[in-house]
Amino acid sequence: MIDHIVIAAADGSLHIESGRLLGSVGSGGVALALTGVLITGIREPKGGGGKTSKIRKRLTSDQAQWTGVAAGTCYITAGSIWTASGSVSDAFARLFTSGAFGTVGLGAVSALLAGLMYFRELAPARAAVTGIIAAGVWAQAGGIWGLPEALVLTGAHAAGVM
Predict the structure, then answer these.
(1) Between vectors from CA 55 to CA 50 and to CA 61, what angle results, nearest 5°?
(2) Which residues contact 69 (CB under 8 A, 6 or more apart)?
(3) 64 three-class SS
(4) Cα dist. 128→18, 27, 133 in Å?
(5) How far is residue 27's CA from residue 47's CA, in Å, rounded to a whole number?
(6) What is the helix, strand, coil percentage profile of the chain, to 5?
(7) Are 59 and 124 in contact (CB under 8 A)?
(8) Closest by alpha carbon to 132, among 144, 121, 124, 120?
(9) What percent of the chain has pLDDT over 70?
(10) C-alpha angle 18/159/65, rounded to 5°?
(11) 35-60 burial string, b = 16+ CB within 10 Å, else e?
């Protein structure tokens, strides 16, 4: 994390400001920003994306699902209004672990989601929702499934946004 930023003033003197590179962001702020990226990034550009349309990028399926995983991880960390995604992940996991499919643990549900994300190219909106659900299930499953959560949180702490 950058602790000090040197700023050159108009009179030629230098000022040192302490703080984070992006200011005060927090996990709720990161969740909000990633949600904005998902909402704007999964929509088709106006005008079909040709030369006459405004310059705008659309998330690919892979970008949407991994942004969804990062957003879902931040939702879990942020709490408050963002806990709705955890409820959706819980409901999805309970669908399989309730006994209707025999003895199924969270590791199996995590493997199911990983297989879906790897072998199926979903539309960006569906990929984003799958990523958000996967973040919650993987965080609950622990073990190797906790690696994406650890990577997102470690990266956010290193960048100084959480």
Answers:
(1) 80
(2) 131, 132, 134, 135, 138, 148, 152
(3) helix
(4) 36, 19, 9
(5) 35
(6) 65, 5, 30
(7) yes
(8) 124
(9) 79
(10) 150
(11) bebbeebbeeeeeeeeeeeeeeeebe
Asked if pLDDT for residue 58 goes beyond 70, the answer is: yes
Over range 56-66, report the average pLDDT. 91
pTM over 0.85: no
C-alpha dihedral over 43, 70, 130, 132, to 10 degrees? -100
What percentage of the chain carries pLDDT values higher than 90?
Answer: 56
- Compute how many other C-beta atoms are within 10 angstroms of the C-beta atom of residue 67: 22
Band (10; pLDDT cuts 50, 70, 90): low
Which residues are 17's β-sheet partners?
A: 5
Residue bearing the bigger pLDDT, 10 or 147: 147
Q: Which of 105, 111, 128, 1 lies closest to 58, judged by CA? A: 128
User: Over 70: is that where the pLDDT of 49 sits?
Assistant: no
- DSSP-based three-state secondary structure for 84: helix
Distance CA 8, CA 112 (A): 54
**Three-state DSSP class for residue 65:** helix
The total of other beta-carbon atoms located within 10 Å of residue 23's CB is 9
